[in-house]
Amino acid sequence: MFSKFLRAPAILAASAFSALASADYHVDILPPVTAVSREIYVLHWGILWVCVAIFVIVFGAMFWSLFKHRKSAGAKAAQFHENTTIEVIWTIVPFVILIGMAYPATRTVLNMKDAGGADMSVKITAYQWKWEYDYQQDGVRFLSHLATPRSQIDEYNAPGAAKNDNYLLEVDEPMVVPVGKKVRLLITSNDVIHGWFVPQFGVNQYGIPGFVKDAWITVDKAGTYRGQCSQICGKEHGFMPIVVVAKAPAEYAAWVTQMKAKMPAEPAPAPAAESAPAAGSPQGAGEKVAAAAPAKAGDGKSTYDTTCAACHGTGAAGAPKLGDKAAWGARLKQGVAVLQDHAIKGKGAMPPKGGNMTLSDAAVKAAVDYMAAAAR
Amino acid sequence: MSAATHSHDHGHDDAHEHHGPPHGITRWFYTTNHKDIGTMYLWFALTMFFVGGTMALGIRAELFKPGLQFFDPQFFNSLTTVHGLVMVFGAIMPAFVGFANWLVPMQIGAADMAFPRMNNWSFWLLIPAAILLMGSFLVPGGAAASGWTLYPPLIIQQGMSIDMTILAVHILGASSIMGSINIITTILNMRAPGMTLMKMPLFVWTWLITAYLLIAVMPVLTDRHFGTSFFNAAGGGDPTMFLHIFWFFGHPEVYIMILPAFGIVSQILPAFARKPLFGYASMVYATASIAILSFIVWGHHMFTVGMPAAGNLFFMYATMLIAVPTGVKVFNWISTMWKGSMTFETPMLFAVGFLCLFTIGGFSGLVLAIVPVDITLHNTYYVVAHFHYVLVSGALFAILGGIYFWLPKWTGHMYNEGLGKLHFWLSMIGFNLTFFPQHFLGLAGMPRRIPDYALQFAEWNMWSSIGAFIFGFSQLLFLYNIVSTIRSGKKADQKQWEGADSLEWTHLPTPLPYHTFVTAPIIK
């Protein structure tokens, strides 16, 4: 390893000239393709120009002084060392400028945090070192790995094979989203902290094991967008790219059909588990079932006790408490099916499946039924 | 008790004044002299600076072009991690403590630090810590490779090197706490008659505030390691909690590394402008405000964790506020130069370089404070560029300028001015060539801590690597200049710099006697 390191200068010199020939000097944020990333783009440039202007004025003054007040030019040192008026001014003026920057930034923050009203959601799970995309409502779920062959990467002993155009930014199975639809991203991790980062979407969200965090995108232009894991996650951190293809809704539907056909029959956990508990937990029967078979997936009470009670037992985060008829009344008017849907997909402070992604959809529905029964 | 100790120390001092310091290695093992200890801190920092710098050059060599040429990705991750730890805890912080040891007693007219033996112990703790940290490269699994932030659960996947790293950081923390207690006690209790707080040189002020920050923050560091074991045992826990705790330590730590630099620059600029520091009082207040604000901005390292909007907004506003006191400082420095009578010796060049480049780092910090923009730049090379602008052209340039400034006083010899200026210009060019293009890489979306990258990042990475090698190798000039100054430099004057006005220049001869201010001076 260190002998290779000693060779460095020779290699560096040799490749310097070849690299110069095909120069590609990006100096800007990549073209934005969502409303949020467009706002980010504008914010960045706005703030950058304000900074540049301040820098030019302040340091223009300094360099003028450096030139003018040289001892070699015969400058005699003045002895002033205070001026309250000017000190107050240069405390207040930056403060006002900062408020000018904070206002538009605040609007964008509130916008990017508002994942409500999504048309669909995709659960993204990070693994060392690959991504899993789970389209729960469509029953499509797959892994996405780096597609660049190792022969292009390793150059320890000899120059590697010619590199693909999208070297290190290509995957075997990209994520696909429909153009113009609000897609809610539910991001988590199975092992260590990762970061799902696609610059052109303005999304950079840690996937944290044990937690589900959300973000959203509405891509307004069909195309292929590339990103990478942003948080160091071990040896292959640099080798788990993200590729998202945005397609017109019709093409997206075709893609879903095609992917569904590829899905193995076995791991479709949602439909398989659904039939059994749906029968096992009629409304109002939660208590009885609990006594009979505490471990069953369809047992609404035990699911409630292990997962839901953390918030719905205490009213934490504004959750309606178990048996609170007033709080549940308005919600129940929407129908139990709607509530079940919210419980599975998440709504407001309510994380999908109460944050316990190991639950089957059916178990969540049963728990909703149990809570609904208690409020009647 | 204190009277007895005092007379004992006094007798000791007299003996030393007749016989000088003991000779040989035991002088350094047993010394309680603030100057000796300061010297050891500075040499330790310089050594670690070269160790960390070598790692940085390894990183830049690997990143010179796409593909993996030199290092296994895991080893690359170890390099970035240990480079960060070594530079933060081994180079920058000990260098500032070295400055504090040398200067605080002399600038306030005290004979030595308040707790000389503890001072010795704080230094010698650094050595086992450094051995543990560097030794972790040799154990199975290699050195810590999770980034210097050591986030779980990634960190618990590694072998015993993590335990060694954590122990090393613990020891460094203990050393810093002792050093800070020492500095605070010295400044508050041992000032010469007439040396009121508001008459102290600004360097002393910045260190007083820094030492408070260190004491408040280092125990958090300790806690987080108990936390880490907890994650280890539970195999899970709440990683977000660790992030909060880490950055509650980490952000004030960043200011610990910059406030003494402000102090050094505030000494150098007036000396070479031959004009008193502008807005002394507001400088003190600005430093204190920055220190206080540093405790409530940790969340800006975590905008991508998924905090609620209210959390993100709070940390954004608090972070933006820091621009106000920082701006005050920059304006004060420029007003100090305004209508001065300036000359541009090496320390002044580094101070002016600091001012320009630190401000660029401040501006990129402001850009990063804006949550939405941060989201798209978090963990990219833009962040790498930002913190190297504040820590290298900020803290390090101030240290280099400070070394040139006080070297004549410390060694009794004048350094080679031409070589010093060459060192400055090569550092300036190399540094900017290394780190300015990294802003562009970050904007284009290149994540940090990756050993290999996509083709569109190739050009700027190449330039960055070239710059890094220029910057790295020009530091050898610095080493050569110091060594030749000590061995054969011209004799320096008592007041080598015309505009310098703190006690070490006005009251003490060059070369400095081993013990100074045995009788406190009267300050008018």
CATH architecture of the largest domain in chain A: Sandwich
Please tell me what the overall shape of chain A is: extended
Mean pLDDT of chain B: 87
Which CATH first-tier class of the largest domain in chain A would you pick? Mainly Beta
Q: How many domains of chain A?
A: 3
Strand order of the largest sheet of chain B: 1-2
CATH class of chain B: Mainly Alpha
CATH architecture descriptor of chain B: Up-down Bundle
**Distance between the terminal alpha carbons of chain A, to the nearest Å?**
71 Å
H and E order of chain B: HHHHHHHHHHHHHHHHEHHEH
C-alpha Rg of chain B (nearest Å): 23 Å
Name the CATH homologous superfamily of the largest domain in chain A: Cupredoxins -  blue copper proteins
Q: How many independent structural domains of chain B? A: 1
Counted by DSSP, the helix tally of chain B is 19
Q: Which fold name fills CATH's third level, the topology of the largest domain in chain A?
A: Immunoglobulin-like
Distance between the first and last residues' Cα of chain B: 31 Å
Helix content of chain A: 40-55%
Count the helices of chain A. How many? 11
Would you tell me which CATH topology of chain B applies?
Cytochrome C Oxidase, Chain A
The main pleated sheet of chain B reads as:
2 strands, antiparallel
How would you explain this protein's 3D organization?
The complex is a heterodimer of chains A (376) and B (524). Chain A is α+β, with helices and mostly antiparallel strands. Chain A is built from 11 helices and 10 strands. The longest helix of chain A is centred in the N-terminal third of the chain and has 34 residues. The N terminus of chain A is likely disordered. Chain B has a single domain, classed as Up-down Bundle (Cytochrome C Oxidase, Chain A), CATH 1.20.210. Chains A and B meet through helix 1, helix 2, helix 3, strand 7 and strand 8 of A and helix 4, helix 11, helix 12, helix 13 and helix 14 of B.
Give the topology.
The complex is a heterodimer of chains A (376) and B (524).
Chain A: H1 2-21, H2 35-68, H3 84-112, E1 120-127, E2 130-135, E3 140-144, H4 150-153, E4 175-178, E5 183-189, E6 194-198, E7 203-207, E8 213-217, E9 223-229, E10 241-247, H5 249-262, H6 269-280, H7 286-292, H8 300-312, H9 325-332, H10 336-345, H11 361-375
Helix pairs in contact in A: 2-3, 6-11, 8-11, 10-11
Chain B: H1 2-19, H2 25-30, H3 34-62, H4 73-108, H5 116-124, H6 126-135, H7 160-189, H8 202-234, H9 239-256, H10 259-273, H11 280-293, H12 309-321, H13 323-337, H14 346-369, H15 371-377, H16 381-411, E1 413-414, H17 417-443, H18 458-488, E2 490-491, H19 503-506
Antiparallel strand pairs in B: 1-2
